[in-house]
Design brief:
Creatine Amidinohydrolase, about 220 residues, three-stranded antiparallel sheet
Length: about 220
């Protein structure tokens, strides 16, 4: 079908598109680092999410890629929760899922930080998710099946009996839409190729306790 051919063309980004996605990503990352000093006990999720959107606009974003997700404490166990009036407390994880836009192109990034202090359990869980992300990044290459990249991250979590808390795909294409083209899931039939921009975003979500997700965009460049 013509729609599929059109999407296949969109999946392969040219250098101008890559630079616009990079610009959006740089704005988002700069804004996150600017927000971090304000992330402290007694601030609410809604308050910080609104401030975050303002900072991204101030730093040059044309808009947000999607409604900013900013969750604290047990709320982080909801993969795509909505910011509320919940106040942050010391010992909370705070999860930020956010994106800036530049000339129609999107970025997508997720960070999870601890406020005040982190327990040994929190540190171990965070390091496990980071290890899973790095495994997925290492597996990513042109000609590799999306499902195999998913499995590389999944297996790291499964070794520690934590894969049962991983409840979404590992990644998706990003460009003119925040979700476009292929999907790095266990049932995906797609294969990565040169020019793809994809997120790699493993996460674990322990009900009523905490959640952790780490997400970055990767570009598959020519060798």
């Amino acid at each position: 079908p013509l729609d599929n051919q059109f999407m296949q063309l969109r999946n392969v980004k040219d250098i101008e598109e890559i630079n616009l996605i990079k610009d959006a990503n740089n704005i988002a990352e700069k804004s996150f680092l600017e927000l971090l000093p304000e992330v402290k006990a007694e601030k609410t999720e809604k308050e910080l999410a609104a401030l975050f959107d303002y900072i991204m606009a101030k730093n040059g974003s044309d808009g947000v890629s999607f409604d900013t997700i900013l969750l604290a404490g047990s709320h982080t166990s909801m993969p795509h929760g909505v910011p509320s009036d919940r106040k942050i407390k010391d010992g909370d994880f705070v999860l930020f899922d956010f994106g800036a836009t530049c000339s129609g192109y999107h970025s997508d990034m997720t960070r999870t930080v601890a406020v005040g202090y982190a327990t040994d359990e929190m540190i171990e869980a965070y390091n496990l998710v980071l290890k899973a992300q790095l495994a997925g990044i290492k597996a990513l290459n042109s000609g590799v099946k999306c499902a195999d990249v998913y499995k590389a991250s999944y297996d790291v979590l499964e070794e520690q009996d934590m894969a049962k808390y991983f409840r979404h795909s590992l990644g998706h294409g990003v460009g003119l839409d925040i979700h476009e083209g292929y999907n790095a899931s266990p049932k995906s039939k797609d294969t990565f190729e040169v020019g793809n921009v994809t997120s790699i975003e493993p996460g674990i979500y322990i009900p009523d306790k905490f959640g952790i997700r780490i997400e970055d965009l990767l570009y598959i460049s020519p060798r």
